[in-house]
Amino acid sequence: MQNQLVETIVGAVVVAVAVIFLVFAYGKTEQTSGAGYTLTARVDNAAGISVGTDVRVAGIKVGTVTNTSLDELTYNAVLELTVSEDVELPEDSSMRVASEGLLGGSFIALQVGGDFENMLGDGDEIVHAQGSIDIVGLIQRAMFGGNNGDE
User: Fold this and answer.
1) Which tens digits make up the pLDDT trace of 12-22?
2) If you ran DSSP here, which 8-state letter would residue 90 be given?
3) CA 54, CA 39: separation in Å to the nearest integer?
4) Contact 71, 125 (CB under 8 A)
5) Domain residue ranges of the chain, discontinuous segments joined by +
6) Distances (CA, A) of 51 to 21, 32, 107, 130
7) Which of 26, 41, 81, 111 is the most exposed place for a label (fewest CB within 10 A)?
8) Closest C-alpha to 107, from 58, 48, 28, 37
9) What is the pLDDT of residues 91-140, one digit of tens each?
10) Is the overall model pTM greater than 0.85, yes or no?
């Protein structure tokens, strides 16, 4: 009888810890509501970007990547971003695939432009976009010569 009581208490503690973990994890994901507008961007390298990747302005999350695909004509990656409707971006804004550090994850960094008379709207494309930078390739070029073997 004593063993059953201990097992029941341990089971209840495990369930309580699991519930606390789920609540914590849900709160950390900073889920945004579906409200927002969709933008697209084309980059030559989208390494590290997938559906759900953060979209940030000045380091603050303002949206997420909602779709990634390959343009079969140009072989560029097409990124579909959903940005919060309360964040208005000028048409001359730019985006780049950024990294949180050498070992960190990637995110989309939006740089706000200066033309506040013409704003991006739902379905517009961010024309000025830069893809991922190959850090390993840069290090190899620095260590073994600047031409990467293309003589």
Assistant:
1) 888 888 888 88
2) B
3) 14
4) no
5) 1-31, 37-141
6) 23, 14, 11, 18
7) 26
8) 48
9) 999 999 988 876 778 899 999 999 899 999 999 999 999 888 877 777 88
10) no
